[in-house]
From TrEMBL:
Role played: The coatomer is a cytosolic protein complex that binds to dilysine motifs and reversibly associates with Golgi non-clathrin-coated vesicles, which further mediate biosynthetic protein transport from the ER, via the Golgi up to the trans Golgi network. The coatomer complex is required for budding from Golgi membranes, and is essential for the retrograde Golgi-to-ER transport of dilysine-tagged proteins.
Gene Ontology biological-process entries: endoplasmic reticulum to Golgi vesicle-mediated transport; intra-Golgi vesicle-mediated transport; protein transport; retrograde vesicle-mediated transport, Golgi to endoplasmic reticulum
Keyword Membrane in record: yes
Primary location: membrane
Keywords: Cytoplasm, Cytoplasmic vesicle, ER-Golgi transport, Golgi apparatus, Membrane, Protein transport, Transport
GO terms for cellular component: COPI vesicle coat; Golgi membrane
Stretches of the chain forming a coiled coil according to its record: none
Species in which this protein is naturally found: Dendrothele bispora (strain CBS 962.96)
Entry keyword Aminoacyl-tRNA synthetase: no
Superkingdom of origin: Eukaryota
GO MF terms, alphabetically ordered: structural molecule activity
Compartment list: Cytoplasmic vesicle, COPI-coated vesicle membrane; Golgi apparatus membrane
Protein name, entry field: Coatomer subunit epsilon
Amino acid sequence: MTSSELYHTKQQFILGAYQSVINLALPDPSSSDYIPTLLYQARSHIALHNPKAAIDIIPEDNANVALKAVVALARYIDAAGSSETDNLLEEMRDLSVEIEGDDAESTESDKAYVRVLAGTAFACAGEVEEALETLGADTEDLEAVAVIVQIYLSINRPDLAKKEYERSKRWAEDDLLLQLIESNIGLITGKDGYSNTNSFYTEQLGNPSLTSPHILTARGVTRILRNEIPEAKSDLEESLQQQKNDAETLAAYVVATGLGPAKKDESEESWTRLLNEHSTHPLVVEVSGKADLFDEAASKFVVPPVATVA
């Protein structure tokens, strides 16, 4: 049975309160909560784009397969763009095979963590089929379902994401993660004018024990889609105060300032900041690509001479 402390840690992680999870005191190593809490803290570091910190908190002599998997994921994220990524993905494959062996000594919980972490790595690498196979087509692990849904949404298949969500409703309780999955799907599909998604985020932000810039950003994006631009800006500004260098929040803020009655200088300043601090963000890459295409087309256009009257 999950302790109240671990339950709280899991809820904080699910809602993106990553810094709060990191700040928690670790249980005694002899406690059954020790490894799950350590995993949530390491994953929180990864979510905050600090994979080295995730590696540093895992004991070097650990033999737990789930801890090995989170270290492998952190190393993979840290090595992005280098030649090491293939070897690290292979390490993930080895761990995935290890937990399926007849002589595997890992607990079912550890096996579930490995599948989620490996599936995440494969999805990041663009290996969609391998990620889905690793996570399991008929899985009854809600964290795995959440990753599967994100994969389907990322490849523009909200129909499959909804199907996976409906399947999980048959066996999952009215879990917070299940509600988050539903909200994520609603954010993509725009069902009922994003009302359910907006209500979910607002409800979570009303929790006095939660400090989650992630949820603030999510509600800010939802409000942009609902054309509530001043409210969206307010959420995003508050989120940036809590997490100053978050690329997704800054990108959303760029959109909000561009759509709202903001001063031109404010909009240009936020765009310049995103361009300088997060040059590989998809929004920057796409806009820069469109600008290059425009310049290329313009260079081929020959301005005709001014017509004169004979």
